[in-house]
Amino acid sequence: METVSQNNNLDLHVVLFEPEIPQNTGNIARTCACTGATLHLVEPMGFRLTQKNLTRAGLDYWDKVEIVRHSCTEQFLADHANKQLFFFTGWAEHSFADCTYEGEVYLIFGRESRGIDHDILKRYESSCVRIPMRESLRSLNLANSVAIGVYEALRQNGFEGLR
Fold first, then answer.
1. Is the per-residue pLDDT at 8 higher than 80?
2. Domain residue ranges in the chain
3. Closest among 80, 79, 123, 76 to 105, alpha carbons compared
4. Backbone φ and ψ of 110, nearest 5°
């Protein structure tokens, strides 16, 4: 069996631009807790982070995930301008699997209803990636897309820190 290098010290961040569905965010938070990724929630969100919504999301992992909140998309982008940003979108030419994820990496996902704004995608076109799927379908579930991206980054780094 081939071994993947573990020398990259992956610092993985998952970013949700304006998430709308608490259950998806709950599933994503669970993925982040289980993998050690930091979860960034960018406002406005389609729900409030209340105990009721968290319970409804069925997640008892909230205390095991690092969550960073941001006031808006433009502020997040300004604060992270010099970081490795990967924007997941169906509009990209390059597959997420063709990228190298090492060091401090931000996997960015848009709203469930309409994804990442097109002006942002145009501005960061060279950093946009897609998950291959049948052309006639619009998108995968957000939580599934995040899991696919997270586990590819972890795979490339030998699942560093995981058993």
1. no
2. 11-156
3. 80
4. -95, -175
- Determine the length of the chain: 163
Distance of CA 101 to the CA centre of its chain: 13
- Name the DSSP letter for residue 91: T
Question: pLDDT tens-digit profile of 76-135?
Answer: 999 999 999 999 999 899 999 999 999 999 999 999 999 999 999 999 999 999 999 998
Distance CA 100, CA 54 (A): 33
Query: Residue 85 pairs with which residues in a beta bridge?
Result: 106
H or E segment to which residue 14 belongs:
strand 11-17
CATH topology of domain 11-156: Alpha/beta knot (3.40.1280)
Element containing residue 101 per DSSP (H, E): none
Take residue 102 and report the two structure tokens written for it. Answer: 């090492």
Residue whose token pair is 């052309």:
135
